[in-house]
Amino acid sequence: MKKTTKLLSIGLTAVLLLAGCSTTAPGSNNNEAAQGGNKTDGIKIGLAVSTQSNPFFVTLKEGAEKAAAAGSAELITVDAQDDAAKQASSIEDLIQQQVDVIIINPTDSGAIIPAVESANAAGIPVITVDRTSDGGNVTTHIASDNKAGGVLAAKHIAEQLGGTGKMIELEGIPGSSAARERGAGFNEEIAKSSGIQVVAKQPADFDRAKGLTVTENILQGNKDIKAIFAHNDEMALGALKAIEASGTKGITVVGFDATDDAVKQVADGKLSATVAQKPEKIGTLAVETAMKIAKGETVEASIPVELELITKDTASK
After folding, report:
1. What is the CB-side half-sphere exposure of residue 236 using CA atoms within 13 A?
2. Which runs of E-coded beta strand occur in 27-183?
3. Taking the CA atoms of the chain, what radius of gyration do you get in angstroms?
4. 208-221 and 233-246 helices, crossing angle to 10°
5. Do the beta carbons of residue 236 and residue 254 sit within 8 Å?
6. pLDDT, tens digit, for every residue of 222-245?
């Protein structure tokens, strides 16, 4: 009997010791981490951007850096260089560094799902910015309404063309939510002008050089183009170069993002308009929201950033 009692005592002591020690691997899931924890200092935030070759995302990162500095948070930025596999790998690195929150600007909204799910499994809250994730658990999404921006662009082009004419649509990276939403808003609205024909649609991957090449190729077979809508300013600026090289006159070009280069071209009368998204504000809000989550505060599932159509009348103000 005494021997049995002694064995029970030893077993109970072992259980208590195990309960008092953490057997959870670094970065693995736990309820507090999944909810964002209750940190008040030493907050570490990961920022995974699709590319730093695009001025829009450079400005977004700068906004994030300013907010992190103001809040005494550590910000670790990784650049995917528009490579979905590279982005997934860099997010795994952020998970291993045990960041408190990960902000993701997906290169591809579908391809990013496993990386989001990895962060979920590690109990690290995820914020998406500008582009959504098609799966996984995202705490909040911060962006302008891309579909509404497409509508603004379509209305401007319809007005400039007087409701009639042939045009081109330069699409963003296939699979990205921004390309899908901007295209959907634009095409739904432009279809209301029965006299306007979108005679060519082709991806130029949000890239200036590709925007130039794609536009050159399309213009060779379509001499009577009256307008071009590009899903971002980089492609719009590439299209302007192609138009200039072809010697074609009177083509209305509308971009999206309101980067500094694009706004200057609008002020100079070369670009007809650009949809302003305010990337610095998106970056700032993302970090401020990440800090709230890390402190255990509740945030909205969607945080919108207002849009504005920049034309020559407003570009110089």
Report:
1. 30
2. 44-49, 74-79, 101-104, 126-129, 140-143, 164-171
3. 24
4. 40
5. yes
6. 989 999 999 999 999 999 999 999
Alpha helices in 97-232 (DSSP H): 113-121, 146-161, 177-190, 208-221
The tokens of 84 are what?
């979905």
- The DSSP output letter for 24 is P
Q: How far is CA 85 from CA 82, 129, 276, in A?
A: 9, 19, 30
Residue 270 burial (CB count, 10 A): 16
Residue 135 to residues 3, 110, 111, 126, 205, Cα–Cα distance (Å)? 56, 7, 9, 12, 22
Q: Report the alpha-carbon distance of residue 165 to residue 151 in Å, rounded.
A: 18
The model's pLDDT over 121-172, given as tens digits with 9 standing for 90+, comes to 999 999 999 999 999 999 999 999 999 999 999 999 999 999 999 999 999 9
In angstroms, the CA 233 to CA 260 distance is 10
Provide the residue type at 253 as one letter: V
- Evaluate whether 29 touches 122 at the Cβ level (below 8 Å): yes
Q: Exposed, middle or buried, 29 (CB in 10 Å: 0-12/13-18/19+)?
A: middle
* Residues paired with 58 in a beta bridge: none
H-type helices in 247-305, by residue range? 260-267, 279-294
Question: If you ran DSSP here, which 8-state letter would residue 43 be given?
Answer: -
Query: Distance between CA 194 and CA 4 in Å, rounded?
Result: 90
Beta bridge partners of 170: 202, 230
Q: Which helix (H) or strand (E) holds 88?
A: helix 84-96
Amino acid present at 178 = A
What share of residues in the chain are helix, strand, coil (percent, to 5)?
Answer: 45, 20, 35
Other C-beta atoms closer than 10 Å to the C-beta of 14 total: 10
Amino acid residing at 147: K
Q: What DSSP character marks residue 167?
A: E
Residue 142, amino acid: I
Q: Which helix (H) or strand (E) holds 63?
A: helix 55-70
